[in-house]
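The methods section describes the discrete structure representation at length, but only in general terms. What matters is that the chain and its backbone geometry are given together, residue for residue. For illustration, here is how one protein appears when written out as sequence plus structure tokens:
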Amino acid sequence: MTSLKIDLSDPYDFPEKWNKDDLTALFEKFGEVGDIFIPRDRLTGKDRPFGFVRYFKEEDAEEAIKEMNGYKLQGVEIAVAKAKKSREEAFAAAQAEKKDSDRGDRDRGGGRGRGRSDSRRRSRRSPTPRRSRRNDSRSRSPPRRRRDDSRRRRR
């Protein structure tokens, strides 16, 4: 299959016919269309200002490029060109990029900042026994009394 990318010249002016059914009707004049894909914005859920048309035959795709590049769809010019990657290649590349960025964040301690486990892992150079920690305390207050001791003294 051969993929074509369709770009709107004005990303803020969407024609009413910017949907799968109308684009199919527009592009099937040049040959059998495999499918049409219009991505949506992840945050808003709205259509993005570009889409993809896949043809079964490369000759049909080339004819569509010749006829439709520069076409005005309800007053909005569209650019039609051969897609640089197939949908499968783009999806695979996006997944690999996501894995690499996730792995990179963990290696740098990125993401949501340094968590408790990260700071504990870094501070474990040589374990110190608990007794010596009490003796090295910076606090000059007297040691805490046990409850049993305080009760005995009151009586």
The two ends are 94 Å apart (CA to CA). The helical segments are 20-27, 58-68, 87-107, 116-123, 130-135, 147-154. The chain is about 40% helix and 15% strand.
